[in-house]
């Protein structure tokens, strides 16, 4: 059976109509310039960048990250960065990227402030984002993470994702200067 690509306009309508997305404890929403200091606090905290394979973000990068505006999905690789609020405070963010419109593929990534980790926030936010990705037309959603990132591995497994690949020493982590081994977890749309 032929596969129809994700329709960009429909995906954007679905995402925009869902935001802000509320879960039992959380609110997922677009980031705004008012979030700059909170984002700087958890994204550039010691040890956090190790899992994102980036150096600390510069002022200009943080400003771009928190510029706000409606997410756009016009081509492969376009992503929405959603803030995660708990009790009215920004405690992390979540990336929802369309990796292939034609093959109906998406990717999720998450970062939670260190002091908020271990409370189920990443799992709750990622579960809502996974459901949103499927509603936007994704057939398969992946999480690409460092093998040593045990917390994110547990989140992926709680979402029902299965380990599909282990890429040994596949890239240099700019935060550490060392080679890292990546894990690719994936889940397909039910039914």
- The number of helical runs is 5
Radius of gyration: 16 Å
Strand fraction: 25-35%
Total strands: the figure is 8
Q: Biggest β-sheet: count, sense, barrel?
A: 8 strands, mixed
End-to-end gap? 15 Å
Assembly state = single chain
**Any idea what the CATH superfamily of one domain is called?**
Gcn5-related N-acetyltransferase (GNAT)
InterPro entries: Acyl_CoA_acyltransferase, GNAT_dom, N-acetyltransferase
GO molecular function, one term: acyltransferase activity, transferring groups other than amino-acyl groups
Pfam families: Acetyltransf_3
Organism: Agrococcus pavilionensis RW1
Note down, in words, how this protein is organized.
This protein is an alpha+beta fold and 191 residues long. It has a domain of 132 residues: Aminopeptidase (3-Layer(aba) Sandwich). It contains 5 helices and 8 strands. The chain has an 8-stranded mixed β-sheet with strand order 1-2-3-4-5-6-8-7, sandwiched between helices. β1 and β2 form a beta hairpin. The longest helix is centred in the last third of the chain and has 15 residues.
